[in-house]
Design brief:
By secondary structure, this protein is an all-alpha fold. The protein has a domain of 53 residues. 76% of the residues lie in helices and 0% in strands. It is built from 3 helices and no strands. It is elongated and about 50 Å long. The model has no long low-confidence stretch (mean pLDDT 90).
Length: 92
């Protein structure tokens, strides 16, 4: 596989995690209290993105292929939970 093709595949693999991480971080910035998290929005986006990539990699390993709806459901659940934990959502 050519290097540019590999890069294209990797970027397309991580695109759902990147889009959801940005949406969660920016949405959480407006919906969560200001004192909830001491991290900046881009730091939270980076942490949530890493969680998302780990879930996508686990789904690829478990199912043997990319793009299963169960993996995407786990992606949303794991990234939302990470965002909730980073924003200290249990403090209400």
């Amino acid at each position: 596989m050519a290097p540019l093709t590999l890069l294209n595949h990797l970027l397309n693999f991580a695109a759902p995690a990147a889009a959801l991480a940005l949406a969660l971080a920016l949405g959480g910035r407006f919906l969560m209290p200001k004192s909830a998290s001491r991290l900046s929005w881009w730091a939270r986006a980076a942490i949530v993105f890493v969680v998302g990539c780990a879930v996508l990699a686990a789904g690829l390993w478990y199912y043997g292929r990319d793009g299963k709806m169960a993996t995407y459901a786990a992606l949303v659940l794991a990234m939302a939970t990470a965002q909730w934990l980073l924003g200290r959502g249990w403090r209400g």
